[in-house]
Amino acid sequence: MKKTEKKIVQWIKEKIKSTGAKGLIFGLSGGIDSAVVAALCEKAAGKNHIALMLPCQSSKLSITDAMALVRKLGLRAKKIDLTPIYDCALKTLGKANELAKANLKARLRMITLYYHANNFNYLVVGTGNLSEFVMGYFTKYGDGGVDILPIADLLKSQVRDLAKSLGIPNAIIEKAPTADLWAGQTDEQEMGLTYEQLDKTISFLKKGGKCSVPKGIINKVKKMIKNSEHKRIMPQICKINI
Hints:
The protein has 242 residues and is an alpha/beta fold. The protein has one domain (2-232): 3-Layer(aba) Sandwich (Rossmann fold), CATH 3.40.50.620. Helices cover 55% and strands 7% of the residues. It is built from eleven helices and four strands. It has helices spanning 2-19, 32-45, 60-73, 83-93, 98-120, 130-135, 156-166, 170-174, 187-191, 195-207, 215-227, and strands at 23-27, 49-53, 77-79, 122-124. The protein has a four-stranded parallel beta sheet with strand order 3-2-1-4, sandwiched between helices. Strand 1, helix 2 (32-45) and strand 2 (49-53) form a beta-alpha-beta unit. The longest helix has 23 residues, at 98-120. It starts with a helix and ends in a 15-residue tail after the last helix. The model has no long low-confidence stretch (mean pLDDT 94).
């Protein structure tokens, strides 16, 4: 994975230069994706980065793992607890379902990242991978609202391989992926399929050949890709002046 690492780091450097930015900022959740992005950003920008830990009713394990990575990589990090803002927003906005509340957390985090990015002229770096990107497993204008996505062409399995190559702690690599939006939430449980099934299906849909995944899973993935297409494109415009 060293070749992949080198290519991504160079790509990030080029984005910094071409946009006139002074550095990078990203959310550090304690998960594998943000850990990999953190390591790549540190290599690309040196000390010109900020890793923001943004707990919002988050588990203690997430913060513990994030802090362990900060120490290991020597990251410039800052912790901002968004729980008071989240609670105030709910009180102001009124009752909502669990999806609305979960998406509010993701959008509060992105507001915070851009607040600091604007202040320092930094690029906001997203942490989404290919498996989640094609499925639309991200919050529109939340974790999906970023400047660059350095690992969005890597399947979850490839992110794990890159994490090992980068020396990310095993505790982060091996724990169940979660957006940490509510207690006990896991990505696989919410999507209704495993990352192994998802990665195999995406590879099959892109490259063809044989696939060991059941047809029902393949159809489910295809449907989710289609239904989430609006998340991956700019807002639709009603064309008048043609």
